[in-house]
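Hi there,

I know you've been waiting on this one. I reran it after we fixed the sequence typo, so this is the corrected version. Both the input and the resulting structure follow.
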Amino acid sequence: MGVKKTIASVVGVVAVVGLGFVGYKTWHNSHQTYTFQAPASTGMTGKTAIERGQYLAQAGDCVACHTAPGGKPFAGGLGLATPFGTIYATNITPDKDTGIGGWTDQQFMDAVRNGKGIHGENLYPAMPYNVYAKVSDQDLKDLKAYLDSVPAVHYDGPKTNLPFPYNIRLMMFGWNLLFLDTAPFKADPKQSDEWNRGAYLVEGLGHCTSCHTPKNLLGADDFGVHLQGAQLEGWLAPEITGNKRQGVGAWSNEELVDYLKTGANDKTVAAGPMAEAVHNSLQHMNKQDLTAMAVYLKSLPGSKDETQTLVNSQDVMARGKDIYLSNCAACHQSNGEGVRSMVPALKGNNALQASEPTNVLHVLMVGAQGAATDSNPTSAAMPEFGWKLTDQQMADVSTYVRNSWGNSAPEVTADQAAAARKLLSGDAALHNPATK
């Protein structure tokens, strides 16, 4: 009986603590105020609410998720693939039947910042309200003013229908209790105005964490490895902290701004989802805001930089070098320095030196298209080599470029190349040439 009483007591304490936590979080999230002023930009972001809102919509890349391929801007219908199923983006044009026409500012802010639909339903965090919670009232009101000004589109797109139990939206109540912090952005008085502006953009409307921070088993951001790189749709969104090898710590502010503004610099070229982000969003931001973002990102400590070297791999490096000189050096050059603003440098490339060879295998297998922007309209393309190189050859040349010209990263195996080929098999005819 004594043991049973002890167990019952422990369970009771846990239950009380759990209820207390739930109560506190509920109270905490419902009593946040948003009277703070967002850190101001030193660049012009618009004289009217609509002009400011357009700038903010571009900074938040709203069009990317809320526009289906071939569809009208902001009319929704795009399917967002998640580990839990496909979530469809909604119509955010001012159509009163299928969009957000007639929504009040408060209803809009509740949806964007608290994940609450107009009828009180819980939204899924594929819409990153957990980071938009940091956006000020005024910025969200300006954003809504802009969305109210775009052409209304009567379009009722596909409905999200996740498999059980993820289709139970009430479950999001628990998710929000665990992972949603509705506290407004708080400027750090120890940092400069520029740093705080950068933090506000990166951690809020820019939602950089949505791609560059790994997710836990429940799909929430793992802030223990904040902005330290994450797998995304067959790509690696690389580390963007001050880490000097795998992050952007070795880049100057100007180099990072050039990359965000034009999609390229003398170190690399944006491709994949990042090319889309540059095209839709970042190229439209003023250089003062981009510089602020660069200052903030480079200040983050990032992952522990553990340089890894190869052991007993001279044969691998020799084979990889032969493949590189025959297939890659014409564009990337024998010294790995590439061509500024067109062909990414491999020497010192941060994403190339990531612990996982995701990106190098991706572009080798199916190729890639660089970002095309107003200031850098010449967008070079990387041809695909999946039809030509075997899994072992893919591994050898990947290992070579990841460990030449001062680079250092783990050896790539044929099994890793085979896994990448299988993952990307829907994008191209990626049969291993060795099996033909």
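Quick highlight: The radius of gyration is 24 Å.

Best,
R. S.
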